[in-house]
Amino acid sequence: MRYLKKFLSLFFVAVILTIPAAYFIIDWKPKPAPVLKPKKPANDKVSSSALILAIDRNEIELTPVNKKGSVYWDTDQDEFRESSAWIGKNNGFLAIDRNNDGIINHHGELLSQGFAELSEYDENSDKKLNDQDPPFSKLLVWIDKNSNGVSEKEEIFSLNDLGITNINLSFNDKDYEIEGNRVTQESTFTLKGQTHVIVNASLTYDNMNTIYSGQYKLNPSVLMLPTLRGYGEVPELFIAMSKDEKLLEMIKEIDKADLKTLIDPDFDLENRIEKMTYRWALVENIEPSSRGENIDARKLAFLEKYTGHKFLQRNKWPNPTPYAANLLKKTYRKTTMYFLNLLFFQSAGKVFYEHGAKYNLYIGEIFGNNIDYVQLLTSKKQDVISSEKGDAYLFSPTSPNITISEKGGKDAIWLYGFGEEDVRYEKEKYNLLIHLGEKTITVTKQLSPPNDKNENPYKIETLVFDSGKRISLDESLFSKQ
User: Fold this and answer.
1) φ and ψ at 237, to 5 degrees?
2) Cα(129)–Cα(120) distance, rounded to whole angstroms?
3) What's the rounded Cα separation, in Å, for the pair 151 and 109?
4) What is the rounded distance in angstroms from the CA atom of residue 199 to the CA atom of residue 127?
5) How far are the Cα atoms of 33, 34, 36, 48, 471 from residue 315, in angstroms, in the given order?
6) How far apart are CA 212 and CA 290, in angstroms?
7) CA 407, CA 259: separation in Å to the nearest integer?
8) Taking a C-beta distance cutoff of 8 angstroms, is the pair 110, 51 a contact?
9) At CA 378, angle to CA 375 and CA 384, rounded to 5?
10) How many Å is the Cα radius of gyration of the chain?
11) What is the pTM of this model?
């Protein structure tokens, strides 16, 4: 998934750099979804404020997002816990248990508006919050002792429990960062007679790296089926299948298909995956023309949900220009090719993958495998798309003649319905021609001299047969003929 996510992030940056009309900058606000703004790199993370107290040591400790110390925490109260920067074990969040259940459930129970919100509890307007203000007794401190982003009753304390007697509301404006988290306000509080620091900090979070936290009843049958990791506002596929019988049947049909059926143009696996993405993200009933004439609105809506980012043209219009739409469509195609790779591995297509490869649902990747994107080149009319990552091109007796121009990565050609005796290799300058009866696969620059790094980025490394046999595509091919 790291390759797909990087691709999506770089895509957003490319849109900003090449199209003044398209901005993908996120500024966190309460629900509805985040608003996109110009003037910053598109892959900037979102942030949300919290009041943080230095408890055991008079020091504020914050962790970076998506690294050691970060947690999953429902920042925008949408049933998805976002990967979030977090506080150290010696710090605590100032909070209010708004639903009186004894724990802190989400960011809505933290004081996310800083000292302005806290000042509303200063009923005698003396710029101090203490036991002279009745709301003082309602304030809580959450010290996440095990740093797991889950509030537990033994981690929740009243101010009196900790010996906090006063919070100074006369804050100072600040502008500094701790591990990528901006501190904007700073003041003090009194704990057991000692002065400690309290800050208003914007905790950075990643609106794409999420886990579903809503309610569902697990259907045991989904545990035996292919699945995909969820991102953004899309839950893990096994969760979505547990909640949606029709989606479950879609995946069952892919799972029960043998290899011949799976790659049959009449089975149309790529179209099935497209329909699956619409159903999975709950966008299938969107009117295709509702985002203008340049793109199928369902594709754009899926990307928005999967990344957790809304698309706005010139920060105003939801409909993309032709150029922006073209980039969006390429992004969607890459995404479905990535899903095809993961579903192919978990079904009858596994024969083409390296022995020992395993799918890791937690990060959404196949370990022990170089392939990121799969294309079934089995139809008469088929565009060939290459990337700088690991591409696999599946060729069968129904495929047309194709030309592949690689861009990098560790790549493979997968052959279905052919044996080693059916293959003949030919040099054409630096091109490699792979003849399969009357069909030909042309790999441009396959035999080019290596660059100064002793690499040939245009090379496809491996030819794989449906028997599992693997052949290196190098000069040694011609010594065997």
Assistant:
1) -60, -35
2) 10
3) 11
4) 16
5) 14, 12, 7, 21, 51
6) 28
7) 28
8) yes
9) 45
10) 27
11) 0.86
Query: What burial class does residue 147 get, using C-beta atoms within 10 Å of its C-beta: 0-12 exposed, 13-18 middle, 19+ buried?
Result: middle
Residue 168: what are its φ and ψ, rounded to 5°?
Answer: -80, 120
pLDDT score recorded for residue 363: 84
Helix (H) or strand (E) holding 178: strand 172-178
| Token reading at 105 | 């459930």
Q: What angle do CA 471, 474, 479 make, to 5 degrees?
A: 90
- Whether residue 397 is preceded by a cis peptide bond, meaning omega within 30 degrees of 0, is no
Compute how many other C-beta atoms are within 10 angstroms of the C-beta atom of residue 92: 26
Cα distances (Å, whole numbers) of residue 409 to 135, 256, 267, 387? 60, 31, 29, 8
The contacts of residue 427 (CB under 8 Å, 6+ apart) are 433, 447, 478
For the chain (481 residues), the mean pLDDT of every run of 10, in chain order, is: 50 37 26 27 69 94 95 94 96 96 95 95 96 96 96 97 98 97 98 97 95 96 97 97 99 98 96 98 98 98 95 90 94 94 97 94 89 90 85 95 94 97 94 96 91 80 96 80 57
Q: Which two tokens stand for residue 409?
A: 């990565």
HEC letters along 370-431: CCCEEEECCCCCCCCCCCCCCEEEEECCCCCCEEECCCCCCCEEEECCCCHHHEEEEEECCE
8 A C-beta contact, residue 181 and residue 62: yes
Domain boundaries, the chain: 1-27+215-355, 45-212, 370-481
